[in-house]
Amino acid sequence: MRSIIHFDELSSTNEYARQHLEELDNFCVVACDLQTKGQGQFERTWYSSNQNGGNIYASLILKPENITHLNELTRYTALIGAKTLENYGLKPAFKYPNDIMINNKKIAGILAKSEFFGQIFKGVVVGFGINLNLEKKELIKIDQPATSIFEETGKTVDKKEFLNLFLDNFENEYEDFLNNGIKGEILC
Fold first, then answer.
1. Which of 48, 136, 140, 175 has the most CB atoms within 10 Å of its CB?
2. How is the chain split into domains, by residue range?
3. Is 32 in contact with 57 (CB distance < 8 Å)?
4. Minimal CA–CA distance to 91: which of 77, 74, 105?
5. How far apart are CA 98 and CA 77, in angstroms?
């Protein structure tokens, strides 16, 4: 059963999750309203804001016994993110290896890091940032073309509702993913 640990502010949900991996349970989510040092791939800065209803800054801790398809976890998470965004009337696309795009603009990024102690697998931290409510004045501060659900639809999104829908979607297909990997071909 999942649990969510929420902070008003953290330097990075991924960093917190990795530092506390041993004590946190499988399917524990670390979330915050604002990240001061959030990072994407290649340690790029992830812009963070809590204006206009906020966005998703979260990390999911997974400790699967079967790690056969672990190398597909970022793509699996991207598929789940896209599926969740479709519930808001959007048509997501993927940019390899870890971005979700809307109209050629980034709306979400995923960063998965496996943790080992020698040869022993300890778990994986799957960080995800999803732009829910960023307005144009904030989107232009990002170092690449970016968008948000608010920018695309004009509607403010409840972040707790979005996060729970995302996690429900993730959990519903997770066991099948662990056993079979990603089915079919995706361009991600």
1. 48
2. 3-180
3. yes
4. 105
5. 9
